[in-house]
Inverse folding.
């Protein structure tokens, strides 16, 4: 069951089900896991739907709390929506939470220090170490957090990494389990890769991640580079792609950039037939759901310890 701010389902065009209940329902059987969503994506409602879809089937009761940075303005999301369904970070700063999700943002062309909310974001990053059990950083947020915590810099790509790619799970060492088995609950030998949509103009170096010392590369693609990184105890995950993406998201981005006259190639491994560009090979659906459900299960395991 997922608990949401009252009215968010209707605002996002979602149909209520037995597994989606508004906050305030008094029939929950146990205390919910409190999960913050710091949504930095331009189309907030689209991202809300993506994250809700990933979490709604989890067996645990989850309270999803949309979070915003005070004083920010938004070009593509009405301020009325933000005021109605999002809470300012300043209002919850003294509380404890089970998890935080930080989304990507369309600012990868900027140096981190030039992002207008960079100081506030760094404060939130630091705050997680004492107030949040587990953190999940997505796409640009993953790169930003790795830069903030470990000094790992991003590097511009000659062409955009755009499509759906298989990232291979990495071994921790000879005779040891894969890092995926520890972080994602994937048993040794049962699954060797994860399919993940990727949409970015920058990357991080595998060598730089290895030099950090207390980071594990969970999944890697020889051409696309680092896919998933974990800190030493799995309490922080850095995902450079978009496992949460709905089936049509890459296609929407492709048509958007074409309309703007931007240089963009057809997303790789996305359409069943690239010449027709109609049917989509939704190859990452199961992997995305498994990733998020396991992430939630790991939070609950921590609760039991």
């Amino acid at each position: 069951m997922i608990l949401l701010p009252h009215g968010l389902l209707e605002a996002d065009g979602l149909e209520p089900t037995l597994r989606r209940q508004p906050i305030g329902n008094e029939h929950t059987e146990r205390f919910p896991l409190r999960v913050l969503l710091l949504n930095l994506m331009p189309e907030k409602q689209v991202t809300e739907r993506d994250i809700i879809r990933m979490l709604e089937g989890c067996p645990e009761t989850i309270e999803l709390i949309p979070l915003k940075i005070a004083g920010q303005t938004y070009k593509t999301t009405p301020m009325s929506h933000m005021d109605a369904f999002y809470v300012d970070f300043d209002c919850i700063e003294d509380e404890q939470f089970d998890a935080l999700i930080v989304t990507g943002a369309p600012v990868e062309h900027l140096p981190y220090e030039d992002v207008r909310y960079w100081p506030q974001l760094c404060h939130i990053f630091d705050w997680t170490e004492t107030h949040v059990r587990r953190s999940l950083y997505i796409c640009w947020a993953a790169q930003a957090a790795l830069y903030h915590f470990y000094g790992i810099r991003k590097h511009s790509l000659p062409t955009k990494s755009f499509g759906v790619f298989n990232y291979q799970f990495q071994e921790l060492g000879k005779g040891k389990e894969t890092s995926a088995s520890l972080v994602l609950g994937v048993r040794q030998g049962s699954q060797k890769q994860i399919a993940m949509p990727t949409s970015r103009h920058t990357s991080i170096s595998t060598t730089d991640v290895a030099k950090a010392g207390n980071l594990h590369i969970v999944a890697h693609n020889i051409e696309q580079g680092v896919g998933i990184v974990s800190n030493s105890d799995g309490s922080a995950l850095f995902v450079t792609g978009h496992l949460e993406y709905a089936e049509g998201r890459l296609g929407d981005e492709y048509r958007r950039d074409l309309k703007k006259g931007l240089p963009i190639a057809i997303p790789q491994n996305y359409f069943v037939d690239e010449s027709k560009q109609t049917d989509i090979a939704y190859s990452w659906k199961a992997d995305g759901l498994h990733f998020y459900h396991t992430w939630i299960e790991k939070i609950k395991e921590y609760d039991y310890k």
User: Anything to note?
Assistant: The two ends are 23 Å apart (CA to CA). Residues 285-304 form the longest helix (20 residues).
